[in-house]
Amino acid sequence: MSWRRSADEPRRTPWRWLRVRVPATAMVVFAVSLAVAAILAYELLLQDGRSDTEVVLAREHERFERSIAALLLEARDDEPTADDRAVLEEAVRRYLQLNPSTPSYWTIVTFDDGLRLAASNGPPELEPLFAARTLPSGALNTREVIDTGTPAGEILTSSAPIILGDEPLATLQIVAPMAPVRAEAREAAYLVAAAAGASLLVGGVLLAATLWRALAPLGDLAATARSTELRRLDARVEEPDSGDEVALLASEFNGMLERLAAATRQQQEFLASVGHELRTPITIARGNLELLTTVDRDDPAAVAETVAIVHDELGRMGRLVEDLMTFARVRTPDFIRPRELDLVSWFEELELKLQSTPIGRQVRIVPPPPVNLHADPDRLTQAVLNLTTNAAVHNHADTPIRIRAVLDAQHQQLLLVVEDEGSGIDPGILDEVFAPFVRAGDARDSTGLGLAVVHAVVTAHGGRIDVRSEPTGTVVTMTLPCSGTSDDPGASTDTAVLRVAELTAGSPPAQLPATAQVASRRHDRQNRS
User: Fold this and answer.
1) How far apart are CA 106 and CA 116, in angstroms?
2) Assigned domain for 217 exists
3) 438-481 pLDDT, tens per residue?
4) Are 316 and 445 within one domain?
5) What percent of the chain has pLDDT over 90?
6) Total structural domains in the chain?
7) What is the pLDDT, as a whole number, of residue 270?
8) Alpha carbons 138 and 158: distance in angstroms, whole number
9) 20 near 236, Cβ under 8 Å?
């Protein structure tokens, strides 16, 4: 697969490429998300560090309270005559000597006369502030964070008064620098950010590689679409085995090309057939019109014969054009205009129309069951007339033709049956009988579109059409949906049962020969394509 731009392909900015834009957008989103996560991790670690420091200060305060009472008794025993101030100072010195501080916190006792005693090993960053007497102590009985305004940064301090004999003699201060806590949280956040950055880089590379490979068929698809013309529809896109949406798109694109190729072939064949069908009558009419210039104008019989031939050929072209216009409207939304149809009244009108045609005396209409049907009466009439005309044209004169209707109430279907007692249809064309310009014989009055129009009418009504042909006759059955009720339910049901049984006794449409069923299904596929 090559992503090189062909000479006729428009130039595109790399940023507009999907395989670049999607990974870049994803990496930006991931980077922002990871940055927010790193900041949140830093704040959480800082809060966790402060909580740990507060626990250390609380424990040191409790330990001082427990120890100072015993130390005061020892100091009083050693110096019975000393005052409370001196006893407290001695007890504090012993406590600080026994409990040295750590770099994480510092214990300081400040007496009212200004004397300050501090444990050893305190935080080194706070020693300059202690020496300069600028170390903030905060409010009594309060634990708070104070910014020193120096390189030492913020401190967490807890102060409480030391009362002896109901008199406050000193202040206990336990202080911890926050700079180490912040440094530890910052270092952990840096590690999180570094790991997130590495993950982002690896993930971005993998995502870009995956998208590059996954979107590769789209390049083939674009190239194929760019090079496809109606004259050449044999190009196909390679279908990946990934089973994802891109593979589905490639498969559907190939299917679309196949349908276009089939439709183009069908259109070309259709146009060729139209040209062939029109060429013959035009040639005959032109030859006879030229013959008029050579015949004796005083011979009325010769002129009348020539005019009759031209008139006949023009009539044939008119019928062909009318069928072509009907066939062209098959896929338009208003091809059929269904309405509530009373079957009995429609059969009566159909009988009147048939009586006015040359084949009316050949056709016998069996009274139908009294049911209602939601259909287009004009299109149904056209379909039935096409079938009767087809039967009359392709058989001997006076061949009996019968039209009947069978109600299948159980399946809510109406079966319109047109049958004749002719010589049947050639089995070699039975599977193509519904295709345009397929003739069952060499009759000149046939346009080859009659059965195609019938099939289109039945399909537009949501029905199906089946044909059974034998040397003793042909039966064409149009099955239409019928949900209407009859005027006389009892009579209608009896008639329906009787006539369905009668039709079954012959060879029902549901069990027609395979060639007839193939014909219907094949023509369905041609219409859908």
Assistant:
1) 13
2) no
3) 666 555 555 667 788 888 899 989 999 999 988 888 999 999 99
4) no
5) 25
6) 3
7) 66
8) 7
9) no
Q: Give the residue carrying structure tokens 């000393």.
A: 82
Statement to judge: residues 408 and 523 lie in one domain: yes
CB 207 within 8 A of CB 186: no
Report the distance separating Cα 478 and Cα 464, nearest Å.
Answer: 6
Separation between Cα atoms, residue 290 and residue 286, nearest integer Å = 6
pTM value is 0.45
Written as six digits, the tokens of 132 are: 């300069």
SS3 track for 316-341: HHHHHHHHHHHHHCCCCCCCCCCEEE
Residue that finishes a domain, picked among 326, 360, 384: 326
The alpha carbon dihedral of 80, 81, 83, 89 has a sign of negative
pLDDT score for 273: 62
> Which residues span the domain enclosing 156?
33-184
Q: Residues 282, 285, 289, 291: is their CA dihedral positive or negative?
A: positive
Q: Amino acid letter at 117? A: L
Indicate the residue among 266, 293, 326 that finishes a domain.
326
114 backbone φψ class: left, alpha, beta (φ>0; ψ -120 to 50): left
Do residue 251 and residue 180 come from a single domain? no
Helix (H, G, I), strand (E, B) or coil at 255: helix
Cβ(157)–Cβ(138) below 8 Å: yes
- Cβ-contact 144, 150 below 8 angstroms: no
Residues 431, 347, single domain; the answer is yes
Give me the amino acid identity at 284.
Answer: I
Does residue 362 share a domain with residue 315? Answer: no
Cα(23)–Cα(212) distance, integer angstroms: 10
Q: Please provide the DSSP assignment of 182-204 as one string.
A: HHHHHHHHHHHHHHHHHHHHHHH
Question: Three-state SS for 148?
Answer: coil
- Kind of pairing between the strands at 363-365 and 401-408: parallel
- We report the CATH number of the domain holding residue 313 as 1.10.287.130
pLDDT at 431 exceeding the cut of 80: no
Helix axes 377-393, 450-460, angle to 10 degrees: 150
Examine residue 141 and state whether it is found in any structural domain, yes or no: yes
Does residue 353 sit in the same domain as residue 481?
yes
Residue 332 lies in a domain: no
Tell me the pLDDT tens digit for each residue of 47-103: 999 999 999 999 999 999 999 989 999 988 888 888 888 999 999 999 999 999 998
- pLDDT winner (highest mean) among 170-184, 259-273, 382-396: 170-184
**CATH code of the domain in which 475 resides:** 3.30.565.10
SS (H, E, C) 4-26: CCCCCCCCCCHHHCHHHHHHHHH
Q: Which of 166, 169, 105, 174 is CA-nearest to residue 138?
A: 174
396 with 452, same domain?
Answer: yes
- Total residue count of the chain as it appears in this document: 529
Closest CA to 369 of 352, 403, 350, 344: 344
Task: Specify whether 318 is located in the same domain as 395.
Answer: no
Residue 407, domain member (yes or no): yes
